[in-house]
Write a structure and sequence with these properties.
6-stranded mixed β-sheet; binds zinc ion; 10 helices; 34% helix
Length: 362
């Protein structure tokens, strides 16, 4: 945790910012370990303060031992009151606030309480880039979440029958995740059968899984705040010829991207590794989303593996060792269905390590 704070302090120094108020719950958890539902951090070159309320006195002390805890004990008091006291005590005249994680109302209220003597400076992207490169502890947690996810799908797949509805299949998967040790699901599980599989983010309903048609399953275990993400496309019974054409194209696109991932490649270039395979097969238009996204405390975070907009230069971030990203090409055909295959990969100094091990059809 102290190493993460040191990295942030370096960024604050570069921006000549004497303090940062952290109001994003994920950034707060990343920098302090405190996972409660309410609270904020104030970080300066020499102080780390954690503000929270009476529900979290014990939890915050346990989870964030590196922080000086300031409590709201009297229900009439607000976080802004605590902050005002701390700002006076530390003699701060400028504080950075997370522009992406504070409403205009909160900003105005804070400005009113702190008064003219303190300048609030909206800043962006100070903590999120740090979170993109995972440390050993984060990678270990992600490995566990991924293993739970793989095991849940492997346990449930043989129990799927054509009569089972998408909703029932999703519940079997959710139960298996929880029984396997997940704290929660990373996101509502997607089970999309037949033509429903043409919708990348279909919500499971009463449609039976059926036989001979694609079934897209997208699921993940959440563990200690970290999110796994896995997609497999299955089929019960004998699929039609088109299925294998589409499946093999998506699989080839995914393998090509995984073979090309390495530090230094841009998110755009990574996307194009897979997209070129799908375009060459004649399904370019049917790959309707980006190749992948980072995972961590958020299910979707940086780096984004997305092609640059038409006619624009590639300004996407370069991949670095320690990033964990999904690689999830897909082809979606209205009326027929779709195929998506998604693994999580850890960027290593030499290339990448595929962390997902759930079996594929080929
Ligand atoms: Zn997914
Ligand atoms: Zn994903």
């Amino acid at each position: 945790m102290l190493e993460r704070i040191t990295h942030l302090r370096r960024s604050l120094a570069t921006k000549e910012l004497p303090a940062l108020l952290v109001t994003s719950a994920m950034n707060r958890r990343y920098l302090s370990g405190f996972s409660g539902s309410a609270g904020a951090l104030l970080i300066t070159p020499h102080h780390t303060l954690l503000f929270t309320d009476g529900r979290y006195t014990i939890q915050a002390a346990d989870e964030a031992p590196d922080y000086d805890q300031r409590q709201i004990v009297n229900p009439g008091r607000l976080l802004t009151d605590l902050l005002k006291e701390a700002v006076a005590e530390l003699e701060l005249t400028t504080i950075g606030v997370e522009a992406a994680h504070m409403s205009i109302g909160e900003f105005e209220q804070l400005r009113r309480v702190l008064g003219d003597a303190v300048t609030l400076k909206p800043v962006d992207g100070l903590i999120e880039p740090l979170r993109e490169v995972k440390d050993e502890q984060e990678i270990a947690t992600l490995r566990k979440a991924i293993a739970i996810t793989d095991a849940a799908l492997e346990a449930v797949a043989p129990r799927l029958t054509p009569e089972l509805s998408e909703r029932q299949a999703a519940w079997l998967l959710e139960t298996a995740l929880r029984e396997g040790g997940a704290d929660a699901v990373s996101f509502p599980i997607i089970v999309a059968a037949g033509p429903n599989a043409a919708r990348a983010h279909h919500q499971p309903g009463d449609t039976p899984l059926g036989s001979g048609r694609p079934i897209v399953i997208d699921m993940g275990a959440r563990l200690n705040g970290y999110h796994a993400d896995l997609t497999r496309t299955l089929v019960l019974g004998e699929p039609d010829a088109q299925f294998w054409t589409i499946y093999d194209t998506v699989l080839k696109a995914q393998r090509t991207a995984l073979a090309g991932l390495r530090p230094g490649i841009s998110g755009h270039a990574a996307d194009m590794l897979a997209r070129d395979v799908i375009i060459a097969a004649g399904y370019g238009e049917a790959f309707s989303h980006s190749l992948g996204h980072g995972v961590g405390l958020n299910i979707h975070e940086g780096p984004s593996l997305r092609r640059a907009p038409e006619g624009k230069e590639d300004a996407s971030p370069q991949l670095q060792a320690g990033m964990v990203t999904s690689i999830e090409p897909g082809i979606y055909l209205a009326g027929w269905g779709g195929v998506r295959i998604e693994d999580l990969a850890l960027i290593t100094p030499e290339g990448c390590e595929v962390l997902s091990h759930a079996p594929k059809l080929r």
